[in-house]
Amino acid sequence: DTGVSQDPRHKITKRGQNVTFRCDPISEHNRLYWYRQTLGQGPEFLTYFQNEAQLEKSRLLSDRFSAERPKGSFSTLEIQRTEQGDSAMYLCASSFDSGTGGAGGELFFGEGSRLTVL
Amino acid sequence: AQRVTQPEKLLSVFKGAPVELKCNYSYSGSPELFWYVQYSRQRLQLLLRHISRESIKGFTADLNKGETSFHLKKPFAQEEDSAMYYCALTEINTNAGKSTFGDGTTLTVKP
User: Fold this and answer.
1) Which residue in A21, A70, B20, B81 has the fewest CB atoms around it within 10 Å?
2) Which chain A residues are Cβ-neighbours of B36 within 8 angstroms?
3) Alpha-carbon distance A42 to nearest alpha carbon in chain B (angstroms)
4) How many Cα atoms occupy the beta-carbon half-sphere of A18 within 13 Å?
5) Cα atoms in the 13 Å half-sphere on the side-chain side of A42
6) Do residues A78 and A60 touch, judged by C-beta distance below 8 A?
7) DSSP B19-33
8) Contact residues, chain A, for B46 at CB < 8 Å
9) Is the Cβ of B17 closer than 8 Å to some Cβ of chain A?
10) Per-position pLDDT tens, chain A of length 118
């Protein structure tokens, strides 16, 4: 297992187009998170999954954004009708939650998918 | 609402000097605090977490609930410590899951 992998690493698109990012978490991890990071800021939480269930979504996640995690393995993040303000690094992370009420443990990050909307 | 503040965007020290990266948080519940580090051209990775009370690469951090701080310290900085450092907070004893990050501090250790 080489860790969390994200694809593509870089996507350039024109405003109004749809884009999809894929994340493959560490195989034994049951939690998967999506974050967005813009220049000069820390990662901002978008959404997370516990297995295949999407348990929380940030208000940052507008109706144009949708995330899925079918079968509780890989996840996709789709952005429809992209806007220039969507330009950012999209980070995926995974962790293992034992279900005993802890914080969910250390986050393991992918290298990110950089989106540039022209 | 959770909030993490790292007041210094940039911090520069000479090799061998002590370094302290500040982190303050606001949260009404029981937090777990982390420091993550991103070296040049590498992914974000965990440096340390307060519940483990470990010293990693010579760094330590103490959770001060009275001052709501979790400052990262190292007595003698090394050039290889140059990186971006993020403080993060996660709720515990809930299934909330998400972590809230500060905006990061870029540490430069000069020779």
Assistant:
1) A70
2) 107
3) 4
4) 9
5) 25
6) no
7) EEE--EEE-SS-EEE
8) 106-107
9) no
10) 579 999 999 999 999 999 999 999 999 899 999 999 999 999 999 999 999 999 888 887 889 999 999 988 999 999 999 999 999 999 999 998 776 555 557 899 999 999 999 9
